[in-house]
Amino acid sequence: MSLRAIAAEILDLARDLGAITYGDYTLSSGQKSGYYFDGRRLTLNPRGSHLVGRAVLRMLEGSGAQAIGGPTLGADPIVTAVALTSHLAGDPIGAFIVRKESKAHGTARLIEGALEPGSRVAIVDDSCSTGASLFHAVDAAEAAGCEVALVLAVLDRNQGGSDEARRRGYRFIALLEANRAGEVTVAGALGP
Fold first, then answer.
1. What percent of the chain has pLDDT over 70?
2. Nearest 10 degrees: CA dihedral of 126, 132, 136, 142?
3. Where are the domains of the chain?
4. How would you classify the pairing of strands 94-98 and 147-156?
5. Edge-to-edge, what's the strand order for the sheet holding 111-113?
């Protein structure tokens, strides 16, 4: 099955699960929006987790990524799905989570999971608006001595974050994309 076909299944499931809703919302970026994408409603669903794990694993092909991580809470189920899917496929990719801030107790880590300095990594989140959460995770991975090979999102809201990622020199890919009216489609960059 092609990546585009998997993304289409993900979009259908997101709609069926009510992960895309319309109304008056304030996003974590502070921006106002007429729609909301609840990525966790999708990625914490058994079928959604399976589909997203398969799709993201495909997106990692050729990137050389040895681990995948992202900002808690949106990335948590995604990186777990990818780690499990990659293990089942016989080519394990490690997972890590980037906290909003370092723990004030215990090891005081900002990054949780096995992340080796010098690793090539992918950074993922369930959605990208301004990209602030993604860039926080990118900065943490780079500060840990890793090279960011790829930046991914399930949904690109097209509100500047993906453009900024590309401007900073990162390869950015999303499964789904939205226009200003909140119409969500399979990302055109996935090809036919």
1. 96
2. 90
3. 3-190
4. unpaired
5. 111-113, 94-98, 67-71, 120-128, 147-156, 172-178, 184-186
Other beta carbons less than 10 A from residue 89's beta carbon: 12
Residues 72-100: what's their mean pLDDT? 97
pTM (2 d.p.): 0.95
| 3-190 classified as CATH 3.40.50.2020 | yes
**3-state SS string over the chain?**
CCHHHHHHHHHHHHHHHCCEEEEEEECCCCCEEEEEECHHHHHCCHHHHHHHHHHHHHHHCCCCCCEEEEECCCCHHHHHHHHHHHHHCCCCCEEEEECCCCCCCCCCCCEEECCCCCCEEEEEEEEECCCHHHHHHHHHHHHCCCEEEEEEEEEECCCCHHHHHHHCCCCEEEEEEECCCCCEEECHHHCC
Query: Residue 142 and residue 144: Cα distance in Å, rounded?
Result: 5
* Per-residue pLDDT tens digits for 4-44: 999 999 999 999 999 999 999 998 888 889 999 999 999 99
